[in-house]
Write a structure and sequence with these properties.
This protein has 227 residues and is of the alpha/beta class. It contains eight helices and eleven strands. Strands 5-4-1-9-10-11 form a six-stranded parallel beta sheet, with helices on both faces. A three-stranded antiparallel beta sheet has the order 7-6-8, with helices on one face. It has a two-stranded antiparallel sheet with strand order 2-3. It starts with a strand and ends with a helix.
Length: 227
Amino acid sequence: MEHIVVFTGAGISAESGLKTFRGDDGLWEGYRVEDVATPEAWQRNPAQVQAFYNVRRKSVLAAQPNAAHLALAALQRTKPVTIITQNIDDLHERAGSTGVVHLHGLITKSQSNINPTLTYPITGSEIAMGERCELGSPLRPHVVWFGEPVPAMGEAIRICRQASVFLIVGTSLQVYPAAGLVEEVPAQTKIYVIDPHASQLPIARAANYIDQQATVGVPNVVEELMA
């Protein structure tokens, strides 16, 4: 049975104006990743971490899905498609995609500091310091930080093992364990890699390399798959 699996990274959201996770200078929007994206940073300076994600959340809410997000949503309306994303934004959902697997969480939600399975929608763009979950623990962003387990990884592996077509879009395949998902795809699966530097990515598999931005390459591949 046909099952198209799409694995997206920061590159697809960058074309909607969202900055990539780690820039060429090793910083994320002016911060060291270690200062805003680790459990240690949260323990050391929770107010700074909370403020950082509140600002980033505003950027996410102001951004709009682009042609790549919309093309994938259109494909899902005609064929069995599952999207697995490393991105913490909700642009896939706002484009119309459903059942998106967020490996690294979703910035539009909060979670309990002591039980990550307790998540809550955020009204507006901010989590205020002092907001607490039903267990009395402080709320933090629903984001998987460096050094934390990736709860959705098992589900993502299962999905990848069922793929008949696998699209890799806008990811450098440098962040593990997510980058290892390509190794879970069956040997006979047709793979497309869509990224401005697609042909330079470390994939030890035969693939169709499309050295284009997501907003160009994804609609073209979707048109091919829908033919």
